[in-house]
Amino acid sequence: MPVRSVPVRLALASAALAAAALPLAAGAVTRASAPVEDANGLAGQGTIFFLAGIAVVALAVVLLPEDQPSSP
User: What is the pLDDT of residues 1-34, one digit of tens each?
Assistant: First the structure.
């Protein structure tokens, strides 16, 4: 094992300490949740999305080419 100088050892030790302490420090932070405005903005739109999905599938069935034989 090669001998490392003191500044290199100090840098490695401080990096290891920082890597170990960061999750602990992040867990200690508490934040208040933001209020939700207009949470039901898409309420009642389910029927429109459902019908649009059916239309997309039907359009894909009509427009996509049928299987063609590779040799005549």
Answer: 566 688 888 999 999 988 888 888 777 777 777 7
